[in-house]
Structure formats: C-alpha cells, structure tokens
Amino acid sequence: MPTRRSYRDSCGIARALDVVGERWALLVVRELLFVPQRFSELRRALPHVSSNLLADRLRELEHNGVIRRAPAPAEGPQAYELTEWGRKLRPILLALGDWGIDAPEPPPPASLSATSVLAFLLGAARPDPAAPPMTCRLELDGRVWTLRLASGRAEVEPGEPATAAVSLRTEPKTFSALLGDPSTLESACADGSVTVVGDLSAIGRLLHAVSDPWPA
Questions:
Q1: Which of 12, 121, 169, 205 has the smallest CB count inside 10 Å?
Q2: Looking at 74, 99, 124, which one is the last position of a domain?
Q3: Which helix (H) or strand (E) holds 61?
Q4: Domain that includes residue 58, residue range
Q5: Are residues 118 and 207 in the same domain?
C-alpha cells in the first residue's frame, strides 16, 4: 500500500523528503527525466523493485503532483511523465549523482539503465566550448537518443536526430565503461559489443568530453 509517512518537520528538506524520500521514488523520477515511460519499461529499468512496490511509488508520486499520466497513446499501455514541478528535480538528481559517484559500488548483480548513463554524461561532460557543434545518434537498450555537444554543453533528447555525425549502438554498461576509458573503444568495436557507423573520431570527442573534461 502507498505510504503516508511524514517527518512532521517544516524544513524544506524534510518536506521534500516527505514527497520523494521513500525507497525507489527518486529512481522512478530518474527514469522519467528524459522521456515518458510505461510501467513495463520502468520495471525493466529498475529490475530489483517488485511490481507492487513500483505501483505504490507511482501512485504516491502521482498523488503528490510529481508525475502524471502521459496523454493516452493510440495503442499500448499508459505511460507516466514528470509534471512541471517534477522536472525541477532534474538538476537536483544530476547533482546527487555527481556526489554519489564517489560512494562504494553496490554488490553484484547491479543494474544500470540507459537513463542512468545519460544522466551521468550530462553531469560530467565538459566539451570544448570552442569546438563546432556535433550531433550523435545513440542507441541504448533498443531506444534511440539524440546527443548534441555545443557551446561547452551536452544535451540529450529522445528520438532520431535529423542528421548525425556518427551513430553508436551498445548496452548501458558498455557505454558507461567507454565513458570511463575511451581507449577501449577500438577493442569494443572489434568484439562486437559496440557498433559505430560514421565518424569514429566524433565518438572519441564525445567520450573525451567526459573522461578528459574541458576546464569549467
């Protein structure tokens, strides 16, 4: 059943935790940062949460005005999306992820969703502000994303780019490993864990924007 617990503390931090402090709540918000998701998609992205607990978190977040039902699709299950108030959590989550990167790794088996990797990339990427804009097509876990580097920033949005310098297809854990060590790109392409179509140097530029960020 959904929880109704409160810290009964007037501090804004406590009131925020009354809304999103339950276990799994912020991870549900994380998965909705870039694109609406169906219940089944959230279950795949969060494999260690039970269906009942996920349903409870969704009801709580919807009741509290953090998420809402997305416009009903022509066919297929209902999806969820962040409200305008919920979207204000984005910089908070990115900052929390940056802080948490120094915490110990969880015990295996540990999951890593495409949204997790993209959130890390947005927080960590510092491309050269003098470099020309570049667009990449990323395919992670079967979903396509458009990634742009421009004016010293990285931007991500769901869907196919109109044009792209390069296309990369892989799994989130492999992409995360590449962001940590770009020198493994060639071997990853050779063993088939990464497929690149287009300008390989463009992928190198993307990876080095995270591993060797331009000074802020």
A1: 12
A2: 99
A3: helix 51-63
A4: 12-99
A5: yes
What's the chain's length in residues?
Answer: 216
Give the residue from 205, 40, 72 showing the smallest Cα distance to 130. Answer: 205
| Pair of tokens at residue 181 | 């060590």
pTM over 0.85: yes
Q: Are residues 193 and 140 in the same domain?
A: yes
First CA to last CA distance, the chain:
46
Strand, helix or coil at 128? Answer: coil
- Using one digit for the tens of pLDDT, what is the confidence trace for 4-31? 789 999 999 999 999 999 999 999 999 9
In total, how many domains does the chain have? 2
Start-end of H helices in the chain: 12-20, 25-31, 39-45, 51-63, 84-87, 90-100, 114-124, 172-180, 185-190, 200-211
53, 24 contact by CB (below 8 A): yes
Q: Please, are residues 30 and 116 in contact by the beta-carbon 8 Å criterion?
A: yes
Distance CA 95, CA 119 (A): 10
Distance of CA 50 to the CA centre of its chain: 21
